[in-house]
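Dear H.,

Thanks for agreeing to be a second pair of eyes. The structure we're designing against is below in token form, covering all 284 positions.
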């Protein structure tokens, strides 16, 4: 993988080799863990294990974006994420990310120490772009067709690769126009967000075509319903399929993989990366 990095506040996240982002959903209605980490102490304990298992980024989310999930107020989201972010920043030497679309949550989370803003709406909510631009945090811009509560009703595209790429191009341009520098930007094709199974598979197959300006790519398919469809497996039996999808994404250019199961994903990526590096040495 060519030299690549992401400037997250004062920290430069080295992406010359792929890294793992651990998912910390501090919501009572997470699709994957049923709210198990909605208690701050449990979330911090889980984060500690993720760090031991190889996570380079911890992504804290206080509002579920699964299909049909209820909206969360700003106050409720702040109450969920800020105490956790503060404790993570104090305890762990990793990038702490906030998974949010709300301007006030962005501002407060950055004040608490978050240095990556991971937004499924790509900073399109009122004030979000301005809040991100006023910070020194990195930004992950994700593609989503529709809204989380209805996005899987009837996803449709003429050309999913071209449309995702065009959307991300436009959002990157908007960020740059607002003062967010290129070294703070990364993109996410939005696997599972307003896409059918076939759309998702096409995105993975051609992942290297979706990054405008060759920005770092974030990829998240962990435990998602499309993997369940492929395997005919419930959410708690999708580990192997999730790891396989993460490896396929890395092979096609993903720099950050967002996962629930950090250790097996990190181990698989580390082994695959060692083989890739050996292959490069042989070619030289």
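And this is the sequence the design step returned. I haven't edited it by hand at all.
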């Amino acid at each position: 993988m060519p030299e690549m990095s992401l400037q997250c506040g004062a920290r430069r996240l080295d992406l010359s080799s792929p890294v793992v982002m651990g998912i910390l959903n501090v919501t009572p209605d997470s699709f994957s863990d049923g709210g198990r980490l909605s208690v701050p102490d449990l979330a911090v304990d889980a984060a500690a294990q993720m760090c031991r298992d190889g996570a380079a980024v911890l992504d804290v989310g206080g509002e579920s974006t699964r299909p049909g999930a209820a909206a969360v107020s700003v106050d409720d989201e702040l109450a969920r994420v800020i105490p956790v972010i503060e404790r993570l920043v104090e305890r762990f030497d990793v990038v702490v990310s906030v998974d949010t679309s709300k301007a006030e949550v962005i501002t407060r989370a950055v004040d608490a120490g978050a240095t990556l803003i991971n937004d499924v709406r790509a900073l399109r909510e009122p004030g979000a772009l301005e809040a991100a631009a006023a910070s020194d945090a990195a930004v992950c811009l994700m593609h989503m067709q529709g809204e989380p509560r209805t996005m899987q009703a009837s996803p449709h595209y003429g050309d999913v690769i071209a449309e995702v790429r065009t959307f991300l191009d436009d959002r990157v341009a908007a960020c740059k126009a607002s003062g967010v520098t290129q070294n703070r930007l990364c993109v996410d094709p939005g696997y599972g967000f307003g896409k059918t199974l076939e759309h998702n598979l096409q995105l993975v197959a051609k992942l290297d075509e979706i990054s405008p300006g060759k920005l770092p790519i974030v990829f998240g398919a962990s435990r998602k319903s499309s993997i369940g469809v492929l395997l005919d497996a419930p959410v708690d039996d999708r580990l192997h399929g999730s790891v396989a999808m993460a490896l396929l994404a890395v092979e096609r250019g993903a720099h950050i993989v967002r996962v629930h199961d950090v250790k097996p994903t990190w181990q698989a990526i580390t082994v695959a990366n060692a083989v890739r590096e050996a292959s490069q040495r042989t070619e030289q």
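Two observations from my side: The mean pLDDT is 92. The longest helix spans residues 262-283.

Warmly,
E.
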